[in-house]
Each structure stands twice: as structure tokens, then as C-alpha cells.
Amino acid sequence: MRDVRVDDGEVVNPDQDYGVVTLGFLPTGGDGYPFPTGDAFDFTGLLNAGVQTGAATFADDGTEQDALAEYLLANHATSETAFDEADTGRDLDGRIVNLAYQDGAELDAAVDNFIFV
Questions:
Q1: What is the pTM of this model?
Q2: Residue 18: which residues within 8 A CB-CB, separation 6 or more?
Q3: Separation between Cα atoms, residue 39 and residue 53, nearest integer Å
């Protein structure tokens, strides 16, 4: 199922409620992203300051660093499961589309492979 949320920089259905998972500093004004405020803003922080459980204990639970470390340890901790794909140049990268180097066709193709809920 393909559900487009933003088309050419415009929100398709501005009255729709959306759930968003993001880096912890962004909804509090980091980098100037326009997150809602007041009653429209239902923020649930996951940071558990001072608590370090799981396999990776160098960062507090709920931080981006801990989430990435736990994921990598759970999925890529051995030589058999380690990420081993060669990197590609920016002109062929289908994961991050830089319109200064690509025409956007890669983005359209990539979006067709996502499942939006």
C-alpha cells in the first residue's frame, strides 16, 4: 500500500493525525523543525536517564545511540551477519536521493518499495 503524506513539499491531508518517530532533540526545537505545540503536540520521550540495560550499556536507554547499538548487536554482531555490501556513489544511491545529483526517478522507485501505514 502506498500512502503519500507529502507531495512536492505540500502536506497531502493536513487534517490527518500522524504518528512520528524522530530524534529526541527535534520536537523540542532542535534544528528548527516545525513540530506542533500546545494541545496538538502529544510527545512521548523514551529517554531513561541514568539507566543502561541490554547488551550495549555505554549510552542511556531510550537514546538514539543505545537504539542503534542494540540493533547492531542483535542483527550484525558476527562476521556472518555483519553488513558487507559495498557502498555506492551518490549518483546511484537509491536510499538517499540527492536531487543535485539525481533526477528523482530513484526516489519514485524507492517509495514504491516502502510500506506506509
A1: 0.51
A2: 5
A3: 33
